[in-house]
Amino acid sequence: MLAIGDELLSGRTKDKNIGHLAEVMTLAGIDLKEVRIVGDDPHMIADTLNTLRRAYDLVFTSGGIGPTHDDITADAVAAAFGLPVIEHPEALARLEAHYASREMEFTPARRRMTRTPQGAALIDNKVSVAPGFRVDNVFVMAGVPSVFQAMLASLVDQLPAGEPLKSRAIPCPFGEGDIGDPLSEIAKANPGVVIGSYPKFDGTRYSTEIVIRSRDDAALDTAAKAVEAMLAGIENRRQA
Amino acid sequence: MLAIGDELLSGRTKDKNIGHLAEVMTLAGIDLKEVRIVGDDPHMIADTLNTLRRAYDLVFTSGGIGPTHDDITADAVAAAFGLPVIEHPEALARLEAHYASREMEFTPARRRMTRTPQGAALIDNKVSVAPGFRVDNVFVMAGVPSVFQAMLASLVDQLPAGEPLKSRAIPCPFGEGDIGDPLSEIAKANPGVVIGSYPKFDGTRYSTEIVIRSRDDAALDTAAKAVEAMLAGIENRRQA
């Protein structure tokens, strides 16, 4: 994923799209491998996009497709692909109809939102009409979270889905320091699963959530039982 | 910045450190230029870190310095620099004292948290003692937000501060489509400032926050007045 916008790097806006995309991809059985955040710099966007679209099967972008002068994603994506930018006829038709129906002026600024690289396919926007677009393996979406989410929902069923990764979360009342050694042994003994441990700190003491992930149900069960037995063992030793 | 952790890419954990670092850097007058998020893959972490530390003056990492088997950041950072990993004597002393004072066992897992690349300087952790560390221009910090924030607070005064970027936020009741054209003219006429416009959508209508940024107070004033005059002009035309 490539999240675009000076406001994300200045801290003015806290990104909400990365975590959402991550959740949706996990449910769809698609592994999110890398995220980059860059500012409103056309060369940086184009260079980063070229790196990501060659490295990965799918790339999703957020941000920079609105009507103002700092919305430069369409131009940067076109530059990355070496394509000209056009006013997309279908986008033009949708926005003309939308503003006419609301008796709003279809200003040159709003018209900017119809610009896509030549040959792009549109991504529907059920929230505010102005579409995103797809070029090859790159999906270009809005930065406003409600619109990003609507666009992603409209396309996720068309993606090549993998076998969903299943996960089992096991709450653990002990800190990572208490479970690190035995958990490491369990991880070594169960190569078919990935075991993560996520520390929580409530201000006075640590607890942990242990998450086991696998595409194989049996491997997941075996590892989960080993973790539960380990936790029961620690508990028993403490009470003894 | 480099944020590390499978849990960020699966959506299980929503990152809170990127936005915090961005805010702190902006206040310190340091421009955050790029963020990457990668999983718990030692080669990916090392390669990404080598790219970032050569491209930028400062690099901050979050995540992967706890006591469990999936905490591999110290090893990956050492690999990136071609350094051996040692048990840092001062970190060892701090953690031994900490666990002794609490009558807690200093397990091999907890001892993992003393591992740093050789020659690293420690970053204090006032929340839970186990330190972060610095190697050259790379600052390695925890992923737990309260600990990340404490570590960043302990080092930010030592960073080479730039002239802080000042900003002026101007709320705007109109959508970007209404202001895009005149705002674009103002941006062109005021090259000493960066003007961002951030759409908000409340479910029925768009409004916008216009943010002007500059290191030059006079340029900021001039551009802010131009934006306010533009908004007053739109308002007057609507009422006419």
From TrEMBL, chains A, B:
Coiled coil: none
Pfam families in alphabetical order: FLAD1_M, MoCF_biosynth
The protein's name: Competence/damage-inducible protein A
Record domain MoaB/Mog: where: 1-162
Highest taxon of the lineage: Bacteria
